[in-house]
Automatic annotation (TrEMBL):
Species of origin: Fulvivirga kasyanovii
Domain of life: Bacteria
Protein name: GNAT family N-acetyltransferase
Stored Gene3D superfamilies: 3.40.630.30
Keywords from the named record: Acyltransferase, Transferase
Entries under Pfam families matching the protein: Acetyltransf_1 (PF00583)
PROSITE patterns (alphabetical): GNAT
Domain N-acetyltransferase positions: 6-175
């Protein structure tokens, strides 16, 4: 498989079940082994319920995209503008809230395609800054974002079940 076999398409209201499946699976693959089962389950039940996802998909300041291979969803992207952002930010700022890919597709360019889609949308919307939060215990993701020009500018708390974790906030200023 090469990246030309992967398509990126918008996820819409009819895709909530598929979004729930890919969201739960990829989050569990990424963080299940390093968090308690109870905290993980509490987070999944809260953030990846059909109701929570339907509300997020319906928000006009949020956008979801699926990465697909042979008709199967293998990853997804969520971006936020305005009040949908998880932190209050100035105008012309876009947040990449989620880029997740199924573990069996790690290293195959899927995350980069989703990232490139986000950056394309940032330019199309005249965003001046793109920012994101990444768990301080996720060196793979931190390295990916640093390689793509992001720099640390702050930290915030991320609540996973009963566990308060720290996300590094990273940003990229667009020319």
């Amino acid at each position: 498989m090469d990246s030309s076999d992967i398509t990126i398409r918008p996820a819409e209201k009819v895709d909530v079940k598929a979004l729930q499946e890919i969201g739960r699976t990829t989050f569990t693959e990424a963080f299940g082994a390093v968090n308690s089962p109870e905290n993980l389950q509490k987070y999944l039940d809260s953030k990846f319920s059909p109701e929570a996802l339907a509300e997020e998909v319906a928000n006009p300041d949020s956008m979801f995209f699926f990465a697909e291979h042979d008709g199967q969803v293998i990853g997804y992207l969520k971006i936020n503008f305005g009040d949908a952002q998880t932190e209050s930010m100035p105008e012309h700022t876009m947040e990449i809230e989620r880029i997740y890919v199924l573990a069996k597709y790690y290293g195959k360019g899927v995350a980069k395609l989703l990232f490139d889609k986000a950056m394309s949308l940032a330019r199309e919307t005249n965003s001046v800054t793109v920012w994101l939060g990444v768990w301080e215990e996720n060196p793979r993701a931190i390295k990916f974002y640093e390689k793509n020009g992001f720099v640390e500018f702050d930290k915030h708390s991320f609540i996973l079940g009963e566990d308060v974790q720290t996300d590094i906030l990273m940003k990229l200023t667009l020319a």
